[in-house]
Structures are given as C-alpha cells and as structure tokens.
Amino acid sequence: MTLYWLPLGAGGHCIRLNGRIFEALQARHEHRPIRDLYHSALQVRRGADRFVIEMTPVVGGGPADRGVVREGPVGSRLLGRSPLFRYEIRRWRDGTILDVAGAVAGPCIVSADATRAREVLRLVALVPALVWGRDESRAGEMWNSNSLTAWLLAGSGHRMETIGPPAHGRAPGWQAGLTVAARSSDSGRHHTMTHGRSARRVGNPSG
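-> structure tokens emitted (207 positions)
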C-alpha cells in the first residue's frame, strides 16, 4: 500500500493560491510559521490488481469509469444538491493519480500487509459522506481528501503515529479523519461488549 503526498493545488493555480491564503490566515491565527499544504491519495495492490483511492470533485463521464463508490456534498448539503458542488470517492482499478509525478518525498510505503490492504478496499464504500470543507462531525477540523485517507488507514489498523505529511508540511483534515475513525472504533467495541453481555444473560438466566 502506497501513500502519495501531493502539493495542494498541483496543476491548478486557483486552488494553489486559495490554499496559500488559507494557510497564511490559519498560521497567523495559531501564531506559527506558514507550512506547505498537501493533498493525499492511496494506491493499493491486491494480488495482480492495482487500485487508486482518492477524493476528487465530481467530473463528467460514468461513475464506473473511475471506480466511484461514494459521493458527498461540498460546502453544504443544500449546495450539494447540484453536481457542481459534489465530490466523489474513487476505488479505481488501474486508475491514475493526477500530478503524481509531483509527489513530495516520493511514494511512501505504509504497509505490505495483504489483510490490511483488503480491509482498506472494503472500507472505501463505507466512509462517511460528510460535507467537504466543513466540520460537520465536530472533530475540530474540516472534512476533506486527507480525512478520507486518515480514516481508511486508521480504520484498517495501521499505526498512525508513524504516518504523516512531509517535514514542514501540513495535511488539513487529517486529524478529522483520525477522530471520526476513533469514534467508529469505540462505537463498534461498545456494541460488541453490550451484545456479548446480553448474550450471556440470555444464556445464563439464573446468573
């Protein structure tokens, strides 16, 4: 499994400029130096198959052409009723990552574990379709493409303390993905424990 860190707005002047303005304002508010911003994407191999996992704006063509398994709103749920304000999540067999040649720190191998790779591929269709650019989950940070990557890696059991953006860089939304994934994990454990206690009570009514 390979993680790519792409400079925010690579190939798009408008996005790059807006990102720099956003980071300058954020850095000033937090009283810290300005950092480089990154967008993340994953490439997962399962046997002879290769998949690209990424969150991007909705583009033309059939969803199956790009392995689209999920869509969500951009900005607000009201705006998201228009195709112009929607994003798509891809699990694209033999897909491509735009501007991958510009990835910083090269391809980062995060795992060679086949079980975790299968779990990442399974989870893609289950990722929460939260509003892009908003903190709808109250995680303290907006939801975006980095949230998707962090959610998938954390949810599939990777050691997240060893995974992060390049030096002197920042991945907005990364912490939101970790926070939402942790909540999902805690909820699952609570359900299992509650279900287990109920089963024991049913099986041992005299206890």
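Strands lie at 2-7, 36-46, 49-57, 68-73, 86-93, 108-109, 169-170.
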